C-alpha cells in the first residue's frame, strides 16, 4: 500500500465558503464565468481593492487593481495543476492582506483511517523545524479529523526561508473519500490571521456525489 499511488475520489466535495473572506482559484476556466486567468484575476482584484475602501477610478485601477491582478495570475500559475489539490482558494478579505492559498485534495481511500491521518496530517513535514502539533478537529459534515501545525524552513519555490504549514485530514467512508486541506505561508503573522478562517473553511467542506457523474 502506497499513498504515492493514490487516485482522485470518484465523488466530489462542496465548499460553503464565506465570500467575504475567500475567493476561488480556478484550476481550469471551462464552465466558469471567466474566459481566462486575466479576467478572473481582474474581477477579484477589483473586488478586493474596493473592499479596502478605494473607489475604482482609472488611477486606482492602473495603480492598484492591475498590479494586484497580475500578482494573482502569477500565483495561480504556480498552483493550478501543480499543487496536490482539486480545489483551490485564496484567503484575502481585501487588497491590504497578502493572499494565502489553500488547497483541498479529494482522494480515494487508501489504507486505514490511522494511516491516512498520519500521511496527510504530516504531509510536507520533512522540512519542519518544530515538532508538528496534531490535535483532533471536529466537524459536522466530515466528522472528526486531525489538524496538524508546524513551522519549517525551505529553499524551494524560489522563496527560501521560514514558513508555517497547516494540514487537516478527514475520512468520509460513505463517499470513499479522504479530504486533505492544507496551506502554508511565509509570513508568520498572516498565517496566524488565516487560521480561524481555515478552521471555518474546513467545517464548510462536505462530500457530495460528483456532479459530472450524476
Question: Largest sheet, described in full?
Answer: 7 strands, antiparallel
Distance between the termini: 30 Å
- Fraction in beta strands: 25-35%
Average predicted local confidence, pLDDT:
95
Structure description:
This protein is of the alpha+beta class. The protein is 29% helix and 29% strand. It contains four helices and nine strands, in the order ββααββαββββαβ. A hairpin with a 4-residue loop joins strand 7 and strand 8. Helix 1 crosses helix 2 (58-79).
Per-chain topology:
Elements: E1 12-15, E2 22-24, H1 37-51, H2 58-79, E3 87-91, E4 100-108, H3 113-121, E5 133-138, E6 144-154, E7 161-172, E8 177-185, H4 188-203, E9 205-208
Antiparallel strand pairs: 1-9, 2-3, 3-4, 4-8, 5-6, 6-7, 7-8
Helix pairs in contact: 1-2
Keywords:
214 residues, alpha+beta, seven-stranded antiparallel β-sheet, two-stranded antiparallel sheet, 4 helices, 9 strands, globular
In short, what is this structure?
The chain has 214 residues and is α+β, with helices and mostly antiparallel strands. Helix content is 29%, strand content 29%.
Amino acid at each position: 500500500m502506497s499513498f504515492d499511488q493514490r487516485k482522485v475520489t470518484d465523488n466530489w466535495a462542496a465548499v460553503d465558503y464565506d465570500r467575504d473572506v475567500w475567493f476561488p482559484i480556478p484550476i481550469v476556466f471551462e464552465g466558469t464565468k471567466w474566459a481566462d486567468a486575466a479576467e478572473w484575476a481582474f474581477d477579484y482584484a477589483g473586488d478586493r481593492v474596493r473592499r479596502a475602501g478605494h473607489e475604482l477610478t482609472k488611477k486606482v485601477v492602473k495603480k492598484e487593481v492591475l498590479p494586484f491582478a497580475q500578482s494573482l495570475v502569477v500565483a495561480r500559475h504556480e498552483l493550478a495543476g501543480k499543487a496536490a489539490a482539486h480545489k483551490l482558494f485564496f484567503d484575502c478579505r481585501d487588497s491590504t492582506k497578502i493572499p494565502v492559498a489553500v488547497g483541498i485534495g479529494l482522494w480515494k481511500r487508501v489504507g486505514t483511517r490511522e494511516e491516512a491521518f498520519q500521511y496527510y496530517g504530516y504531509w510536507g513535514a520533512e522540512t519542519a523545524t518544530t515538532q508538528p502539533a496534531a490535535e483532533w478537529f471536529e466537524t459536522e459534515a466530515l466528522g472528526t479529523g486531525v489538524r496538524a501545525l508546524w513551522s519549517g524552513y525551505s529553499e524551494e519555490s524560489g522563496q527560501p526561508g521560514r514558513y508555517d504549514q497547516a494540514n487537516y485530514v478527514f475520512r468520509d467512508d460513505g463517499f470513499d473519500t479522504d479530504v486533505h486541506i492544507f496551506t502554508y505561508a511565509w509570513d508568520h503573522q498572516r498565517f496566524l490571521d488565516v487560521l480561524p478562517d481555515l478552521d471555518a473553511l474546513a467545517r464548510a467542506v462536505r462530500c457530495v456525489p460528483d456532479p459530472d457523474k450524476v
